[in-house]
């Protein structure tokens, strides 16, 4: 989860988020190099005493400032398109979960299990026990097995919502009457927090998401207990 004065992204807990972090670092390095080059050119123009009178015939400069930006855009676009493809690729998920947004809570349905449906409400600050994060903890967590591809089917019952878990690299809109899907594979055990990321009304800030990644044995015990 995020912490005070954090400057970077949260640590990755899925392969997609690791790819996103690598792409962020790659693009940021390109931005730094371009900014340094532009600053150098500006400084050079302000400090030099030389002039160039042949300003109407500079084919070399024209070629450089046309070809170089095109190469830079290709170096950024290719990794970006690769990640977009990986985010849309869903092959043989081990588990499918439907998340339905409401004003103002989430409900979850494990479509591979009969009668495994529950609502997830935020725990009010007055009822929190020591150590639980404020405005992020829920009464029922979405429990998933670790190292298993999970497919999420996301929709909404009333207005626009957005199901977002930063550490998993997920932010998918929940639209009434439409079913969106995304996938993630938790690589670490633990609790991963998210929130609704689409303004959906007065209690928009009070419908958190908690994903609990556990070992397969614990998940099977949990699912059996929930169904019973």
From TrEMBL:
Cofactors named for this entry: Cu cation
Record has Transmembrane as a keyword: yes
Domain Cytochrome oxidase subunit II transmembrane region profile: 1-91
Source species, domain of life: Eukaryota
Transmembrane segments: 27-46, 67-87
Catalyzed reactions per annotation: 4 Fe(II)-[cytochrome c] + O2 + 8 H(+)(in) = 4 Fe(III)-[cytochrome c] + 2 H2O + 4 H(+)(out)
GO cellular component terms given for this protein: mitochondrial inner membrane
Record keywords: Copper, Electron transport, Magnesium, Membrane, Metal-binding, Mitochondrion, Mitochondrion inner membrane, Respiratory chain, Translocase, Transmembrane, Transmembrane helix, Transport
GO biological processes: ATP synthesis coupled electron transport
Note accompanying the cofactor annotation: Binds a copper A center.
Annotated ranges, domain Cytochrome oxidase subunit II copper A binding: 92-225
Any GO MF annotation of the entry: cytochrome-c oxidase activity
Subcellular location: Mitochondrion inner membrane
Membrane topology qualifier: Multi-pass membrane protein
Similarity section: Belongs to the cytochrome c oxidase subunit 2 family.
Chain's role: Component of the cytochrome c oxidase, the last enzyme in the mitochondrial electron transport chain which drives oxidative phosphorylation. The respiratory chain contains 3 multisubunit complexes succinate dehydrogenase (complex II, CII), ubiquinol-cytochrome c oxidoreductase (cytochrome b-c1 complex, complex III, CIII) and cytochrome c oxidase (complex IV, CIV), that cooperate to transfer electrons derived from NADH and succinate to molecular oxygen, creating an electrochemical gradient over the inner membrane that drives transmembrane transport and the ATP synthase.
Protein name (Swiss-Prot/TrEMBL): Cytochrome c oxidase subunit 2
Name of the encoding gene: COX2
